[in-house]
Amino acid sequence: MQAHSEPPGAPVGADAHYFGRLAQGVFEIPRCRACGRHHFFPRICCPHCGSESLDWVAPSGAGTVYSSTIVRRPEGDYTVCLIDLDEGPRLMSRVVGTPVDQVRIGMAVRAQVDQTDEGPLLVFAPRGDAS
Amino acid sequence: MSADRRGAIAVLGTGLAGLGHAGGLTEQEIIAQAACKAVARSGLEMKDIDGILTSSLTSPWWVMRMAEYLGIRPRFSDSTMFGGSSFIADLKVAALAIAAGECENVLVCYGSTPRSAPSSSKINQMRAELDPQPYEHPYKPFNPVSSYALAAARHMHQYGTTRRQLAEVAVAARQWAQRNADAFARGPLTIDDVLGAKMISDPLTVRDCCLVTDGAGAFVLTSAARARTLHAKPVYVLGSGHAHWHRQISCMEDLTVTPAVDSGRSAFAQAGLTPADIDVVELYDAFTINPILFLEDLGFCQKGEGGAFVEGGRIAPGGRFPMNTNGGGLSCTHPGMYSIFLVIEAVAQLRGEADARQVAGAEVALVHGNGGVLSSQATAILATSL
Hints:
The structure holds 2 protein chains of 2 kinds.
Chain A: H1 14-23, E1 29-32, E2 54-57, E3 62-71, E4 78-85, E5 90-93, E6 108-116, E7 119-126
Antiparallel strand pairs in A: 1-2, 3-4, 3-6, 4-5, 6-7
Chain B: E1 9-20, H1 27-40, E2 51-53, H2 62-70, E3 76-78, H3 86-99, E4 106-112, H4 121-130, H5 145-159, H6 163-177, H7 191-196, E5 199-201, E6 204-205, E7 214-223, H8 224-230, E8 235-244, H9 260-271, E9 280-283, H10 289-297, H11 306-309, H12 328-331, H13 339-350, E10 364-371, E11 376-383
Parallel strand pairs in B: 2-3, 2-4, 9-10
Antiparallel strand pairs in B: 1-7, 1-8, 4-7, 5-6, 8-11, 10-11
């Protein structure tokens, strides 16, 4: 794992790196040097080929809603979505910036890092006209 | 190799206890009641049990606690937790252990009391902390419902499956439950009732979701040869299969295709049968989308056709495809990990002991268990003869 951003002695695990970068407002995912594929959630070995030779890279941030549900809670409704990144990996997130009942499968979205009361959170917003 | 295990083991006695509301008994107490019934109905005594398979959603020490409680000193035991699929996955483990000579008489048992003694928020929090999912939990999926809702939404998008078709699964389950005195939810239920019920996580309403009840079940397994000497109606395990591909819904490659594709293929291959040979089907229906996915993945219909398959009362009493004949997790009982009740219901059907819900002439049954969020899938084919 190339942990290029941490000072010596800092945690270098995949979870620590991912959430550390997210706290800095940066979204990064691992890409395998051996097979060239990206993966998510971040691991210290590639789930496609088993290699431990990985780089952290910034994805384009562009993705597509693969599936979506509205969670109905007394404190307010919110979406839980699966997003397919253009680079390939799928991740769970939330689509913001549009009413919950307007989120559609196939919607084009773009990643943003929100700073919330509970810490940094990767979310997605509809992407311009393409949505 | 796996074909050698075809019909190698058989189910002897089964037992149920504490269904619905356990009336103040603990989960160990109702499991023990179910186990005592199952052992007695097997023509055995508890001291004859030399293998035990059981697991818990909460306790990592569960098989030691249950063996201690029942006074069993097992030669073989296993407590691997595969969520709701555990007790069908156990059929393969038992077949291997019995074939290897590790044990002769295996007790499989499970129960819990989430209705009469709901988990405290402290225990729920502890469960989440012991199974960390830092890439999903921050988004607060109302799990397990939300994960299944994502699968349902994707299936609807990709194949045109409708909420009415999902509702057909719940209504058919209720109609079967109305024929089962042990079932918890027996009141009238229409498709419109399901569609109009409180939405939990779109597109699933509360009536698309399984019950939360107490309940315990147990059954005993032994070699097919021994079974014939011990029981008038042994039920043979012709084949079994188990597969898991992911733990978290975000790691499932295609939300419309489950590992039941693999578990079903293994079970049918070992049994030497095809879907056309099955007389009665028991599929884990934690949510209404589940049986639709499993009917497709197990080969009862093509991918994408599960919604149309369940329409028009086909899976309801009197329909051409008897399914979930006890009322299922949706209307009979659902104490957390349900698959033990699938086996027990299939055995009742194959023995002709299912009273008002009996499927005439049932000789071959398929049981299919699901665990996690479509994560672990276990299939078995049971029959009255080899």
